[in-house]
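Revision sheet: structure tokens.
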Amino acid sequence: MHSKIFIKLDANLNMIKPKPCLQRKFIFLLFISMGSFLFSFAQDTAEYHYFFLENLKPEHSAIYTLKQDSDSGWIRKDFYIENAKLQMMGLYEDSSWKLPNGTFYFFYKDGSLFWTGKYVHGYKEGIWLSYHPNRMPADSICFRHGHPIGTFLQWYNNGILSDSLVMDQEGNGIEFKWHYNGVISSAGYLTDWILKKGIWQYFHDNGKLSQRETFENGNPVKAESFDENGDLLDSCLQNQGPIFQAGIKDWFKYVYRAFFYTSNDPFPNPNEYELYFTYGVDENGMVRNAFVEYPLHDDLDKRLVNAVSKSPKWKPAISHNRRIYSRIFEPFSYNVSYPNNQLK
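Predicted:
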């Protein structure tokens, strides 16, 4: 899903617009507080941007970047403009930020750790860790020259294990997955890092077998499907992603209305802004764990999360003849110059 909603911005968003004098003070404080890495104004370059968009004007930005040349490479530090907290820190071999080389840290807006891991000349190396917004572990994976090796573990934000993968140096492995309620979801073997081989078994969220499938060279060659009582079926459910009950257009209308209910005055500066948010739809169609992955402003972020979290039920995703938990990543766009506050 990558459709966009265009609306007017709430006037409260002007809270992220630094006045010229405050902007200079803010930049100065950043240099002082991070003095161990920043040696002088002349050695550093600074940019404003919004995650994927580089070199924006300060009033259109969510992130402030400091880049510094050092003996070991180019140090990059990104800060949330709204609260001056660190968003990421890492070392690159080049000034264009194409070759990461060193340990990287990414943080949520509240300062808690998002994920961390090490690059060696552009390749992931060693253990990488990530965390949910509630600070529960999200995943742990070991890399060697960019390839996963050893044991990979992934958890839901409720602490239940969602995925376990053990991989050897040749790319052969075994994988187990679990439903959001902790019941086994699937199990089988992998080869060449990603290709399924042999017999894979898939399970309904009540523990009953939903499908038994045989793979050769990553391709399915035989399958048997079962209903939630374990009885053999003549046909199986078609794979599909999660679907909002009333359709995708009504989903965007719902989010728009739920999000915009408190707005009064239009934002004075014409520009388009985007919040990149993610949420889960569980096996029963309930929306869970919504959060803004690339935040813009606290008020807007919270209103969007609140709107999505209160969503009516969805039709859950279907895979291998059973309902599964799925995550959706969407851009939510505001165009303050869009006429009459309408959806596009």
